[in-house]
Amino acid sequence: MKKYSKVLGASLFVITLVSACFVLFKQYSRQQKVSNEVKSIKIGVCIYDEYDTYVSTLIQEVSKLAKQKEMETGFAITLDIQSASGSQITQNDQIENFVDKEYDALCVGLVDRTDASGVIDKAKSADIPIVFFNRELVEEDLQRWDKIYYVGADAAESGNMQGNIIVEACEKDFDLIDKNKDGVLQYVMLEGEPGHQDALVRTENSIKTVMNAGYTLQKLGDEIANWNRAQATTKMATWIDEFGEDIEVVFANNDDMALGALDALKKSKIEQYPIIVGVDGLQNGLESVKKKELIGTVFNDYRGQAKAIVDMAFALAMKQDFPKSIQFVNNKYVYIPYQKITYDNVQEYIRLLEQ
């Protein structure tokens, strides 16, 4: 009887082991089948305007990293990049086209950050996940679905750094900056565009940081220049005609507008230029910091943002977990840190962009 029990027990063990192996084999076969079936993915990319220098640089990096991802993973990645040329209606149509073509993931730089509903509704109806970037949509929209995320940077940080650059310059030589010797910093502000989150927050925080450091400021002018160098040149030329040498500080929400202000100054008869600060840290801005034409800028890490966008879009398209390198804030936001650039460290960033 004992011998029979031992044989029965051994038989049951073998049967259980074979069953377990069979289940594991089926699971593996299923995974292999899925892997073999998915040979390529399609990612639709929408930007608000192809003429924005920072956005175009960011998208060039996205394209470069997508090609690297192809080589690393062996999956073909179709990246379809469309510009809305400043029209939210056009962008909604582009999203609808991506949905009709059954794209696997979407990456969207909104035209109007307050009007994301059309984009979200179209993508959600087709169960296509979205990575928003560059233009932070309102929080209520971001919470509407568990398959939408945002990649960008903390705008308050950039404003604080701009303010700190001005404070440090004043600490070194306030008497030189304060041209009219009244103890007050007369300034003008070039803003990106109406309603843009980064423009609003940078504007507020840059001024607040300088004031919190104990300096008194007087606003001479504040104009929208839509992130555009030519528009900034026009605005600055008007201020030069009106205020002349009284302008002591120029705050610009990005480097293109800072360089536009510089262009206007070079065409003027101003003998002592005001100090100028920007944001982005792209090649032209860095060269002007190196020449001491801009007092400084803030590096908006397009490479870090592009990597996050590509890694997240790929994972969403493949229905995989996000890489551990993706660090979320409130499970929705990925903020890539800004970095302050002045003459003292600008060469490091010039070398970085040359790599």
From TrEMBL:
It holds the Pfam family Peripla_BP_4. CDD domains: PBP1_GGBP. Keywords: Metal-binding, Signal. One of its GO terms (cellular component) is cell envelope. InterPro entries: MglB-like_PBP1, Peripla_BP_I, SBP_2_dom. It comes from the Bacteria. Transmembrane segments: none annotated. PANTHER family: D-ALLOSE-BINDING PERIPLASMIC PROTEIN-RELATED. This is D-galactose/methyl-galactoside binding periplasmic protein MglB. It comes from Lachnotalea glycerini. The lineage of its organism: Bacteria, Bacillati, Bacillota, Clostridia, Lachnospirales.
